[in-house]
Design a protein that fits this description.
Blueprint: H1 11-36, H2 38-45, H3 49-74, H4 79-99, H5 103-130, H6 137-189, H7 201-208, H8 211-242, H9 246-254
Helix pairs in contact: 1-3, 1-4, 1-5, 1-6, 1-8, 2-6, 3-5, 4-5, 4-6, 5-6, 6-9
Amino acid sequence: MTTRIHEKIDPITNRALILLSIAFFMQATTAMSVVGAFGAIASEWHLSTTDIAMLVTAFGATFAVTAPVLQILVGHWIRRTQILFGLSVMALGALLFAWAPNYEVLFISRIIAGLGAALISPVLSALGASLVKPAQQGGALATVIMGYSVATVIGVPASSWLSLHLGARGFYVVLAAATFFTAALIGFLIKDRTGGGKVSPAQLKDLMKRPATLSGLLVVFFISSGIFGTYTVITPIFRDLFGASPQMISAALLL
């Protein structure tokens, strides 16, 4: 009698994993949207390269600082609820960006979007893993995290192309609508009510002391720093040093 080593994930669960992957895509695209829409943002609000780089920093710093704090405060929430709330906050941040009358409001909108991302990013993978059997968790996690990988390839050039044709404000309205729509799909199609674990500051401190955890965090830190750093400076380099048009920059970001 043979035992099946790899069990297929059922269609309903697989659909849920794909939705979580789309949520990851929206989170990563929101994070890097300023880079893709660099030219349109600079033109709409008359901003310098440094000003726009600070908008990227506002999101990244908020995300990095608040993600562990929020898990201490609300990590025990139902994971689905936390994701829905986080996506809604991200969408509101995008809407505020689209409406912003000045740089100060733009900066605040990126902080709000960073808070939303900090709410969802730690629990997307956790919820995905909880939906399947232990033997299927590797494949489930790969499906969920794929959304982030796709966003690094498609999200930035898509942001560039959309902002070129819709303008910066129009692009962020579309981004907000897509984020709200993703939240609606998750709310309607994912019925799981699994709660997260309560995390205390002492547990977090103890976790950070473990060499394996610290080394893993450093890997993520350097990868993320490389991605954000490269994408932030590459658009002005193409524009200022090589005289690339917005259409050429969009195509270059895709490559």
